[in-house]
């Protein structure tokens, strides 16, 4: 991938880019049944990139029918695992081959820096699909420990038709986290990308077909949550919904399941990650650098962003100064410039939402130490500078609600017990971090923090081999690792009487 391209080179390639903007159903691109479209906006300029098919219930019905037909036909679900493996690996290869194009689509569509799209998002997406392709013929079925009179076989079978609804902050990577294990286990899929960032999902549909995934197995229907997303949630022939997004919308999918066919639902619904730095942290510079990147990376549009910096009183001022020194170098800029470390907020609605939280923080009495405003207004895009609040009470709105923007709330504590109490005082439980050189204190904190992942003396570490998901209202079910395959399979027991 051309990560070393200059700004002019990226802009030149962007100017010649073409956009796939239709739904992909049963192996071909099609317009929405209604003929309706919506504007796909470049958040760095506010300009329209293209008009995208606005799929709704009729299009979801078409896609689910195609997925069900393919599943029952067995062209994918009954394919030998070794063959599915080769196809998924080819799919990953094609994503890498078209990496420059996909990185541009991701950056133009969502506003993230091209250096991240080209070096993190697209390679990570390809790696995810390749990893599940490699894993799928390594999973064995089981024989139960019965007596000699019976043989009980326990098999994993694909659940059927999977509906995947994914967010806009990591458009292709979050899709890959669903696509990889769902297809590896033999299911058919209907993917609904977020309306704010649908372009890479639409584009990879034809790469999937080129790799050899049969018609109807992988379908992409762009559209709005209240239409296409709801149609997936309520569909009587969708067997499983996997969703990443807000807790508010996640609860709708639980409701839709109960009101329809009791389809399986897995949810990853964000967080309010506590990043706890104790006075005996082994390296305050490393901790402060991680704290800055933990909230300002991807413009703070990260579900496990370290939005609550919980610091021991004796070192709080020192840590804040170090965080601000790092943040000063992370000024928002042109996402196509490879030197840019922070890009644009995904759209005007989200920008105004973040600015509203900043005003709420000031109104509740938090001390604004850095940032707090919209910048680069001459470019016509949606940029917010790194923002840091001090003297935050954990009961404040900015400490309790997921902002999904570059806003850091600093909260002080006196001892480890208070730090854990503050860390757990949230409806979310996606991730947490603790910095200490005391291994006993680290283990106690990791056990006590109610979160799906706890980092010790690091932040946002991990790879495809480790599961990702949360406790409490951060949802349930896990992405990544072999555990993700559990969401997309049913266990079937076949009991054979051999003693007669």
Structure overview:
With 500 residues, this protein is α/β, with parallel strands linked by helices. It has 2 domains: 281 residues, Aldehyde Dehydrogenase, Chain A, domain 1; 191 residues, Aldehyde Dehydrogenase, Chain A, domain 2, CATH 3.40.309. Helix content is 38%, strand content 21%. A hairpin with a 4-residue loop joins strand 3 and strand 4. Helix 2 runs parallel beside helix 8 and helix 3 packs across helix 7.
Low-confidence stretches: none
CATH class of the largest domain: Alpha Beta
* Main β-sheet, spatial strand arrangement: 14-17-18-13-12-20-21
The CATH topology of the largest domain corresponds to Aldehyde Dehydrogenase, Chain A, domain 1
The end-to-end distance, rounded to whole angstroms, is 64 Å
- The total number of structural domains is 2
Q: Gyration radius, to the nearest Å?
A: 23 Å
